[in-house]
Amino acid sequence: MADTPSAPTPRPSVIQLAIKEKAALFSAYIPAFLHGGMFVPTTRDYKLGEDVYLLLSLPEDTQRYPIAGKVAWVNPPHSGADRKQGVGIHFPNEDKSQELKNKIEFILGKHLTSDRSTQTI
What is the pTM for the complete model shown? Predict the structure, then answer.
């Protein structure tokens, strides 16, 4: 009896997000996620739990940070409350993600406790 080949596991989609200003970083960062996360504006349909590969650029930093995250929140089109369509990407529980979370929180500093509205939950 021959083995039937199983369907290949789909490769995670790659999302590039270049954040050029601290205000945009504040608006996109999701500190409520345990390991950190980012809101990514997109019109593409994603499902909760879907694997994504995020290439993130931060303000005044030439490095791109690769994160193999998961879609943890979906903001559908026309969701109201002036929210952009997009997804919340949860960073994985790994050292690279913790370093990135720490870097983002250092950049944001006291702005993390601001009550200004953001694009996140």
Answer: 0.80
pLDDT tens for the chain, residues 1 to 121:
555 566 566 677 899 999 999 999 998 999 889 999 999 999 999 999 999 999 999 998 989 999 999 999 898 887 666 678 899 999 999 999 999 999 999 999 887 765 655 555 5
- Asked if residues 92 and 51 have their Cβ atoms less than 8 Å apart, the reply is no
Nearest CA among 53, 66, 76, 52 for reference residue 99: 66
The answer to whether 39 and 113 are in contact (CB under 8 A) is no
Q: Are 25 and 108 in contact (CB under 8 A)?
A: yes
SS3 state at 28:
helix
Q: Measure the CA–CA gap between 54 and 37, rounded to whole angstroms.
A: 10
Let me know the angle formed at the C-alpha of 53 by 35 and 94, rounded to the nearest 5 degrees: 30
